[in-house]
Amino acid sequence: YSGSNGTGTAGTPLTITFTVVDRESTALTKNTLQEQRSPEAIRAAYVYPNPSSDGRVKLAVFSENHEQLQYSLVNSIGERLYSGTLTKEASSNHVDFDFSEKMKAPGVYFLRVEGPSVKRVFKLMKTL
After folding, report:
1. Distance (Å, whole) CA 100 – CA 83
2. pLDDT tens digit string along 78-122?
3. Is the peptide bond before 49 cis (omega within 30 degrees of 0)?
4. Which helix or strand (DSSP H or E) is residue 28 part of?
């Protein structure tokens, strides 16, 4: 309409096309596909503390001994801040990361960890 509050002359009609996706069934399908891979390929992993006030976090990953893991830290707009490779030692399931120089500003960051038996992206929160 040409006037405020729906008054005046009607303009050219527009058509909006959209698709509704059932996220619940999509997630279920995704989980079913993951379960079809070998159980050894899917390992538990988590990061703590999260949120972190200083950018220092620990990764707990239950994977094969002496496994090579690639990791990268990305900010909320997709810029890669840091990346590297580490070898998980047999004596520990925990890896310490000190991202204090990279996670200076409070906000959301993403830690991607990938190896032969683990592939995860963790959402990290940096607080004041």
Report:
1. 14
2. 999 999 998 877 677 888 999 999 999 999 999 999 988 778 999
3. yes
4. helix 23-36
pTM over 0.70: no
pLDDT at position 67, please?
Answer: 80
Q: What is the DSSP string of 4-25?
A: GGG-S--------------HHH
Q: 49 or 67, which is more confident?
A: 49
CA dihedral 124, 48, 72, 39 (to 10 degrees): -110
Which tokens is 91 given? 């004596």
For residue 123, how many other CB atoms are within 10 A of its CB? Answer: 12
What distance, in Å, lies between the first and last C-alpha atoms of the chain? 47
- Which is it for strands 56-61 and 68-75: parallel, antiparallel or unpaired? unpaired
Contacts of 1 (CB under 8 A, 6+ apart): 7, 8, 9, 10, 11
Q: How far apart, in whole angstroms, are the C-alpha atoms of residue 82 and residue 104?
A: 13
